[in-house]
Amino acid sequence: MPVVAQVGQRELLLAVQDGVITRQQAQALWARWASLASAVPQAPQPATVAPASGPRFSFTNTLYYFGGMVAIGAMSLFMRLSWDAFGAWGLMLLSAAYLLACLKVADHLKSRHLPIPAGILATLAVVLVPLLVWCFQHGMGWWPPGGPVSYSAYHTQINWRWLTLEFVTLAAGVVMLWRYRLPFMVMPIAITLWYLSMDVAHGLMVQGEHWDFYFMRDVTLVFGIATVAIALWVDARSRQAHEAEWRQDYAFWLYIFGTLMFWGGLSWRDSDSELGKAVYCLINLVLVFAGAAIGRRVFTVFGGLGVASYLGYLSYRVFGDSLGFAFVLTLLGLGVVALGIWWQRHEDDINAYFAAWLPAGLRPRQDL
């Protein structure tokens, strides 16, 4: 007897990612089924909300994110100004109350299928964790002497004394992320990894309290590589997950800050060797094609900036102060624009070509 199965967009998406059918075939099938279904009266079905595969900046979402950022900034300012009024223990209790309230509201919003505002509230809870640790350390008298005297310095000063705040924030953030499964919560975790790279370098420096730019640059580069590796692992796991909640784009923020650390540390090396500069260009070319292969434009953007800077350097070296330099630089800029137009027109084909060489877990996410 014939077997009846329900097939939706998600099943077609999985078939595309597994290489069973192409994206164009999936779109054609879905369009045909939709046209056939529209001709048949259907009974009303309960609405379902599929989790977003990644951040989408519609007007509504922009309002959500803007309001969330304002709330996070206002909360940090309020807590800083409350130090004199409440002291360490009072501010810790107040922060804990705000944290629990944010998680409670996040639970409520998530139950009403509002994942973005729920994620913003849960993110605010993660942001309050380092403040809790700061208050606890000061209340117990465990804050190392000689460190910053204000919590606001956490976001502006590089100091090894912040390491306890960062490690606890990472642990708490991972636990809360596992509990709520909202991708925006990865943002403070990724930022904390960025802070951690600088503070670890500060703690490892032989001079202790002095700034060693080159050492911190190299540590940042290593942390960037490690963060990108974690992002790749998270990305592969989420793409192959069976539950819809785990198929969301949890690697987005890790890719952004990991690439920022890696590319920044690489670009700050400023090699005097022509071979070193050529290798720098080659690495950036690899970033461009890697971004195309796995569908991560952050790689392509930073790689393109690196290649453009190297080409600009070559133009200046060849033409120097001659009038031809301005002409060549103009042609270079127009060439980059033309390349962008060509890339946009053939982006799907480029992604498909490079994705064919990758395991299924790292192929670009497809939206039907």
TrEMBL record:
Record field: transmembrane: 63-81, 87-106, 118-140, 185-207, 219-238, 250-269, 275-293, 298-316, 322-343
Keyword Transmembrane helix annotated: yes
UniProt keyword annotation of Transmembrane helix present: yes
Entry keywords, A to Z: Membrane, Transmembrane, Transmembrane helix
Name of the protein described by the UniProt record: DUF2157 domain-containing protein
Source organism, top-level taxon: Bacteria
